[in-house]
Amino acid sequence: MEVKATYVPVSLESIEPLIFPDVALFIKTGGNFVLYKNHGRDFSEHDRERLARNGVEFVFVSNEEMDVITSHMEASAERMLKSDLLDAKAKGKMIYQTSINFVDDMFNNPDKSTDLDRTKRLVENLMLYLSNSPDAIKSLESVMSHNYHTFVHSLQVASLTLLMHSEAYTLSRDEMLDVGAGAIFHDFGKIFVPQEILNKSGKLNDAEIQVLKRHPEEGYQFLQKKSVLSPVALSIIRMHHERCNGSGYPLGLQSRDIPRSAQVAGVVDVYCTLTSDNSGNKTMPPHIAVQLMRNQMKELFAPNLMNTLEKLVCTEDVQQFIL
Q1: Is 193 in contact with 246 (CB distance < 8 Å)?
Q2: CATH number assigned to the domain comprising residue 235
Q3: Each residue of 289-310: pLDDT tens digit?
Q4: Which structural domain, as residue segments, surrounds residue 135?
């Protein structure tokens, strides 16, 4: 698990003036965090306009005060997503912020994973955004620092996994909630991987690779014991690294034995890894990533799932964007 930063970025567009919680807000200047608003003063529309005019996209909150921010944003998410006053880009930043805060909280406080209602609310809001925003892929922007790579990646995988299921299959609302929960938690087992392995800049040695490869099974075992996630969600967590030709892990399953949703999440996981780096920045155009997966990994993924992925991410409009 990545080490938490001293300050957490909050998108300016996700802040509702006057009703935002009373916390100290900082702005980043020259690598330093400078107090902008202390406790006891509302954040006004004038504040937001002034910061925006000066090119400020994010304010920062200390980690110690993130619980109140997370609770406020999760409680406000549905109302803001349904608001006619916000455009798709602003809603994208809001649901992005809410989701990142959620995953951060869950990964750093594993026992909170038993709150299934909270998880379902997050997935429902993500589904609401994806279904109501034609340009959802374009509007969901990677906005967090490199310390949040695992959290950013979890949201990317959940969003595209939901979109692929919606495109390829006819699922009930409850089934989609299960899929979303599994995708959000797919890398949960990385909380058991030592920091020095997760943050290593160079190539991992064989022993380190074996430790990293334990994360699907360890995440599954931990969450299975909590007895709140469905078998579908748990299968995604355990089997998103299984591959159709049997070369995956932890079980070495072949295509016929890998649950459908785990196969989808596996395709998406690799695609998102290819197309964004540790800071969420674009590293490979979508169409190049898809062709690489088709040509160099063709035995690993089901062709019909690759077709669905290509249909979603390789349109002319979205080739220049990263989910």
Answers
A1: no
A2: 1.10.3210.10
A3: 999 999 999 899 999 999 999 9
A4: 64-313
